[in-house]
What we know:
It contains 13 helices and ten strands. It is an alpha/beta fold. It folds into two domains: 180 residues, HUPs (Rossmann fold); 144 residues, 3-Layer(aba) Sandwich (Rossmann fold). Helix content is 41%, strand content 18%.
Amino acid sequence: MLKIxxxxxxxxxLTLPNDVLALPQSIVSLTTAGPxxxxxxxxxxxDPAFAAAAAMADHTGAEVEIFAVLEPPxxxxxxxxxDAFGADEAEERDALELGAQSAILRTAVEAQLALTxxxxxxxxxxxxxxxxxxxxxxxxxxxNASIIMVGRHRHSLFGRLAGEDGAMHIMExxxxxxxxxxxxARAVPVRVVVATDFSPASIxxxxxxxxxxxxxxxxxxxxxxxxxxxxxxxxxPCMTMDEARTKLERLGRxxxxxxxxxxxxxxxxxxxxxxxxxxxxxxxxxVVACGTVAIxxxxxxxxxxxxxxxxxxxxxxxxxAVLVTPDPTHISRTVPM
Length: 337
């Protein structure tokens, strides 16, 4: 893809602070003490997450645990349900139904583990009931998860807006990195694209993915200068190509990459998500890493259309695996525990 230097904005280029890459270790590091968590609903769509977790565990030496969240189904209005059975009997029936569904789900997950990874891997399994986002966050925090593996399931636009995309819902709540694995993903990524705007979340993505690559990998650090929006009178503030490349090179020197890994800074121009995806397709990337600002109130239609739009577009359209890292300092302020 042709790399085009963006025009300098009328008021001069934007200069980032010198310490923009000097982030706290808790933000950029992959917590090696915590396990890899595999999120599953027992369906075939989660199978790639098991294979990816097994390969990542072999590469990093981390432990692996599995969790499945059973979201209680909606019942009839409380007064109708309770009028029919009585309060005590209704609560007892709810508990019995939830216990039966949990047992079925656990059996399905055990079979999924045996079929995807093998009987020799006795990974602990947790089945919990509750809302997917809140429950996933609680489990990830309790386990001090280093990363969460989920399988890719292509949803329609309406399904994503309605909250049916489990991977997207987990991303909105957890503070751990989320790795979305497609079918047939390479065990240890060799060609890695890191989309960065030099925000804490995107720098954390670069540091996280650096611990997952092999010795012969090539890492492309990609910055996309935004194109002029026709609705704006002035061009958005951006860096010149030389400034962006310098900052990308500085970022590359801070990454904990294995010996032999090549790092290449790439500066593009246009719509960030579209340019990153086109570049990733052009080099046959194994994984695209990016950051996002995760916000988790009750997500309405308008929120789902706008929050994390670049990361959302990369997740929903990328042909390869995607690693998404939220900024945990932002999440801790906006999401109640």
